UniProtKB/TrEMBL annotation:
<keyword id="KW-0460">Magnesium</keyword>
<protein>
    <submittedName>
        <fullName>ADP-ribosylglycohydrolase</fullName>
    </submittedName>
</protein>
<feature type="binding site">
    <location>
        <position position="390"/>
    </location>
    <ligand>
        <name>Mg(2+)</name>
    </ligand>
</feature>
<dbReference type="GO" id="GO:0046872">
    <property type="term" value="F:metal ion binding"/>
</dbReference>
<keyword id="KW-0479">Metal-binding</keyword>
<dbReference type="InterPro" id="IPR005502">
    <property type="entry name" value="Ribosyl_crysJ1"/>
</dbReference>
<feature type="binding site">
    <location>
        <position position="392"/>
    </location>
    <ligand>
        <name>Mg(2+)</name>
    </ligand>
</feature>
<dbReference type="Pfam" id="PF03747">
    <property type="entry name" value="ADP_ribosyl_GH"/>
</dbReference>
<keyword id="KW-0378">Hydrolase</keyword>
<dbReference type="InterPro" id="IPR036705">
    <property type="entry name" value="Ribosyl_crysJ1_sf"/>
</dbReference>
<dbReference type="GO" id="GO:0016787">
    <property type="term" value="F:hydrolase activity"/>
</dbReference>
Length: 449
């Protein structure tokens, strides 16, 4: 890990957690600007990461944000939800689960090639290609002048001289590998291997056995490194991990919702076991929120209700709940789509990588797209994408949710035909599989429970 490079991220993370960071920016600058060797700088940076992490939370901090399941449960809001878990017919169950898998893949594919793009550039590209508001996948088969204007290419180089294809719609004939899909597949594998009673150590073991290190990113890669150093959960999520509230856990939450129809508490508990391998606080809450929301969506299509089901499994007074409730309030106050997008971008700076990849602004975008998408698959995906921030993650999540609510049979063919019912992954044993087989295996897990 490059400790020196992530010092500014730890500074932002610790500050948002309610710590007094006075003097720490100067200490970061001193290390960066010192004449010490790179090895010495790394050692100094690692020690400073530890110091910032271990700072106490100030008494004036207004939020209560624990990272243990018992404490989280104790701080949940009072909420009444339907506990009569609906008995879904096998045909309807498959249609919903297949719709969720297809929707997740389609949304992820839509957002992949513009991941990292900023709001203004996304809007401008869509307008230049007569795709605004967005109504179709994004192609690189466009006028050379537009390609040059936006710096669009079909390949890039990451390591060495081997080119990597950028997944514009004209360059693919199946769902390419993406971590947003890898972890959903990994969750299926965890349940098939360890059963419903899996624990965080099982998740850790499964990662080490089945996901190569270089197929992980940010918080997951640091957790992976920590696990290899015999730092097991929850320490794997904590040690020198400035990404501990980033979106990585939130993108892993869907599967626990799929297999817990209506049982939002069990979905959230499974999400906790998974999230605590790599995340803390709002990073954990993000996964619990999505899992509970999806479990509720198995038996309800009331968007505000299912969002509130998700919130009911997080601490009432946490930053995530506060910001999601802002979006709900915006909708009730009659704000239009543009006003909400601008509001999110006012609260969080897309040019700051810590904000761009943090759980909270992306969870806000997910809720905004769901509330304003009116259960229309295309419009919901479009709103998630046009809000920027982590485009593939957010579109994958809302695609999963609306795909599940509406079912595979109701997803327009233009969104699923390019997938050819095939997904590639970095998970051992799932290198190339049919999406329908993943759906069937998920149904089989549910019916065997």
């Amino acid at each position: 890990m490059d400790h020196l490079r992530v010092l500014p991220i730890e500074y932002s993370q610790s500050k948002e957690e309610g710590k007094n960071m006075q003097g720490y920016q100067q200490r970061i600058d001193q290390i960066i600007q010192s004449d010490a060797s790179e090895l010495q700088k790394e050692e100094l940076a690692g020690n400073l990461l530890d110091q910032m992490y271990n700072l106490p939370i100030e008494e004036s901090f207004p939020y209560k944000e624990p990272s243990t399941l018992e404490e989280i449960k104790a701080l949940r809001p009072a909420f009444e939800y339907k506990k009569d878990y609906e008995n879904i017919s096998s045909d309807k169950l498959f249609d919903k689960i297949y719709g969720a898998w297809l929707g997740r893949c389609a949304g992820c594919l839509l957002g992949q090639p513009i991941e990292g793009w900023k709001l203004s550039q996304i809007k401008e590209l869509f307008k230049d290609t007569n795709n605004y508001p967005l109504t179709d996948y994004i192609s690189s088969d466009i006028k050379d002048s537009i390609k040059e204007k936006h710096g669009i290419a079909d390949q890039y180089y990451l390591f060495g001289n081997k080119p990597i294809t950028i997944n514009w719609i004209n360059n693919i004939n199946r769902m390419p590998e993406d971590d947003d899909i890898n972890y959903t597949i990994a969750s299926l594998n965890i349940i098939e291997t360890y059963g419903y009673d899996f624990n965080s150590d099982d998740v850790a073991e499964s990662w080490l056995l089945n996901i190569p290190l270089l197929h992980t990113y940010t918080a997951e890669r640091i957790a992976y490194r920590n696990l290899s150093l015999y730092k097991f959960p929850p320490l794997s999520a904590i040690y020198r991990n400035p990404y501990r509230e980033w979106i990585g856990a939130q993108i892993r939450g869907d599967f626990w919702g799929y297999i817990n129809s209506g049982n939002i508490e069990m979905a959230a508990e499974m999400a906790f076991r998974d999230a605590s391998v790599s995340h803390v606080k709002n990073g954990i809450y993000g996964e619990m929120f999505i899992s509970a929301l999806i479990a509720a969506a198995m038996t309800s299509d009331d968007i505000e209700y299912i969002i509130n089901c998700g919130l009911s499994q997080t601490p009432a007074n946490c930053r995530l709940a506060k910001h999601i409730n802002l979006v709900i309030t915006n909708k009730k106050s009659g704000w239009d789509e543009e006003q909400v997008i601008v509001h999110i971008h006012t609260l969080f700076d897309e040019k700051q990588i810590h904000h761009w990849c943090h759980t909270i602004p992306n969870a806000m975008i997910v809720c905004f797209a769901l509330l304003y998408g009116n259960k229309d698959f295309e419009k919901t995906l479009a709103l998630a994408i046009m809000s920027a921030f982590d485009t593939d993650c957010n579109a994958a999540t809302v695609g999963s949710i609306i795909g599940l609510i509406n079912g595979a049979s109701q997803i327009p063919q233009k969104w699923i035909a390019p997938l050819n019912d095939t997904v590639c992954s970095g998970v051992r044993g799932f290198e190339e599989v049919s999406i329908s087989s993943l759906a069937q295996r998920t149904v089989d897990v549910i019916l065997k429970k």
